[in-house]
Specification:
Shape: flat
Low-confidence stretches: 50-78, 80-101
Largest sheet: 3 strands, antiparallel
Order of helices and strands: HEEHHHHEEEHEEHEEEHEHH
Organism: Psilopogon haemacephalus
Protein name: TRI46 protein
Number of domains: 3
Pfam families: zf-B_box, zf-C3HC4
CATH superfamily of the largest domain: Zinc/RING finger domain, C3HC4 (zinc finger)
CATH class of the largest domain: Alpha Beta
Mean pLDDT: 76
Subcellular location: Cytoplasm, Cytoskeleton
Radius of gyration: 29 Å
Keywords: Coiled coil, Cytoplasm, Cytoskeleton, Metal-binding, Repeat, Zinc, Zinc-finger
Number of helices: 10
CATH architecture of the largest domain: 2-Layer Sandwich
Strand order of the largest sheet: 2-1-5
Structural class: alpha+beta
Distance between the termini: 92 Å
Helix content: 25-40%
């Protein structure tokens, strides 16, 4: 157990304190989640590119595919460099065309506490650490296999749990699940989930990235997940946490309902007067 805990510490992102998701290898040899790195750069005023649709690997780059290619100099010729600079190649927001000095992105590494230079491309110049990602996946599978979850309602000897219920926040074996979810009752509508020891409430999932939504975009008036938040489409939009947006909307609806209820007597009086006027007009 001690060795497993020590291994788990090595698989935890230094920013979110959770296991790595799509880890990126920094030039200082440390790793950080892609979403965490994007959020850190956004906090420091950098514009982040969209997440890559497919994982990139150093083995797939032309420089490392062949030793002969790796020894070649990839620097462009002077005349080609001049043409690229004059044409505005590699421009970014806030930079004028034709300027020679590119903007370099500095990333504060949370592990070594140093500012790491990512170059002009920022996160686009980093490679996804596929080896570390596979290790995290295998570690999770090992934990799930080794840690058997027992039914919480069986009489001794307990049977191994096969189903879980988020509404009941409990794990059941097949017989106990049928017993505590009898047909024809409201509990029979509970959807079974894989057994677990930590039940989290069901949250809305992003249909695009299959991640739980955590923020609300006031400009688009829609819920967004962490990956949606760091995309360029929401760069200048007003984004707030879901809880803050919920409380603001609830206060607005409460005030509207209070105004409607306070005006109800006045409206009923006006309706009665109009009905009397209609009768008088008909007569």
């Amino acid at each position: 157990q001690t060795s497993m805990k020590n291994m788990e510490r090595e698989l935890v992102c230094p920013v979110c304190k959770e296991m790595y998701k799509q880890p990126l290898a920094l030039p200082c040899t440390h790793n950080v989640c892609h979403v965490c790195a994007s959020e850190v750069l956004l906090q420091h005023g950098y514009l982040c590119c969209d997440p890559p649709s497919e994982p990139s690997s150093p083995a797939a780059t032309p420089t490392t595919r062949s030793p002969r290619l790796g020894r070649r100099s990839l620097a462009p010729k002077p005349d080609r460099l001049d043409r690229l600079l004059k044409s505005g190649f590699g421009t970014y927001p806030g930079r004028k065309r034709g300027t020679v000095h590119p903007q370099t992105v500095s990333f504060p590494c949370p592990a070594c506490r140093r500012d790491v230079d990512l170059g002009e491309r920022g996160l686009g110049s980093l490679f996804r650490n596929l080896t570390l990602e596979r290790v995290v996946e295998r570690y999770r599978q090992t934990i799930n296999i080794s840690a058997a979850i027992m039914c919480q309602f069986c009489k001794p000897p307990q049977l191994e749990a096969t189903k879980g219920c988020t509404e009941c926040k409990s794990s059941f074996c097949n017989e106990c699940f049928k017993l505590y979810h009898p047909w024809g009752t409201q509990k029979a509508q509970h959807e079974p989930t894989p057994p677990t020891l930590t039940f989290r409430p069901k949250g809305l999932m992003c249909p695009e990235h299959k991640e739980e939504v955590t923020h609300y975009c006031k400009t688009c008036q829609r819920l967004v997940c962490q990956l949606c938040r760091v995309r360029r489409t929401h760069t200048s939009h007003k984004i707030t946490p879901v809880l803050s947006a919920y409380q603001a909307l609830r206060e607005k609806l409460t005030k509207s309902l209070a105004y409607i209820l306070s005006s109800q007597d006045t409206v009923q009086t006006q309706i009665a007067e109009l009905e009397e006027t209609v009768k008088h007009t008909e007569v």
